[in-house]
């Protein structure tokens, strides 16, 4: 599933204004995503529309788009890819493990996209475990387990199963955060098999082998993540960690996101050996100084709206 900033559930008209709008009735969150125009030249009339897709929105900061002041422009962009593949059975073959309380989420660590350009910086900052897909996996674990009962998200530190691949890989290779959901214990009798019975074993992907309660929980997990991301503001911009001087405190600073009107920000922190974020510090400011050394912890920043929906975490760059 691709979550796009189009946010289809919020598409609306804005009274008296042309174009397609997102949340036109919510003060501070009105954003135009599509312009509609009519032109007449040399007795010929024409009409059309311009839909923003992966648009550099900084250009709009120098004009009043479409002559409408006080309202922002936004763009479609893929924010996360959740690939669900083999996620409805709880019973493994050979080992006969039955478990409908855990699901695996596979995510790459070192980013496949432009690794040759970024490898030196990743190594220098120790960010081998902090690629965008790994941040998405952490978000899924925190958000999913918060809202869905009796399910544990098990983060697997691989892009996919051993020597295997999935539909999310093409997105990963092009720089998008993407993960794969797969049941905890696969049953190879029931995937990539012709329906048949052989040596007393029933082969084939049949409904009788589904655990629909397990499927319900895994579907709810997806919905919890997607709805939170859709409702959240965009990512904070230009997140930096100040390194002008040595010290045992850590100064982080950033800029407001392009889209949305966050109530504040969470600065997250974890020890270098921890797989998940361990602490959150809330602030309404665009900077924070923490009494923790950058030598011993990793930090990140995420936007949070008025009802608590968080964006994905952004790892800080170096601020000099």
What features would you highlight for this structure?
single chain; 320 residues; Immunoglobulin-like; 3 domains; five-stranded mixed β-sheet; 16% helix
Molecular structure report:
The protein is of the alpha+beta class and 320 residues long. Strands 1-7-10-8-9 form a 5-stranded mixed β-sheet. Strand 2 and strand 3 form a beta hairpin. The radius of gyration is 23 Å and the shape is globular. It starts with a strand and ends with a strand.
How are the secondary structure elements laid out?
Layout: E1 2-4, E2 11-14, E3 17-22, E4 31-41, E5 44-51, E6 72-73, E7 78-84, E8 102-106, H1 115-125, H2 132-147, E9 152-156, H3 169-172, E10 178-183, E11 196-198, E12 201-203, H4 212-231, E13 237-242, E14 250-255, E15 264-271, E16 279-283, E17 287-290, E18 297-304, E19 317-319
Parallel strand pairs: 4-6, 7-10, 8-9, 13-19
Antiparallel strand pairs: 1-7, 2-3, 3-4, 4-5, 8-10, 11-12, 13-14, 14-17, 15-16, 15-18
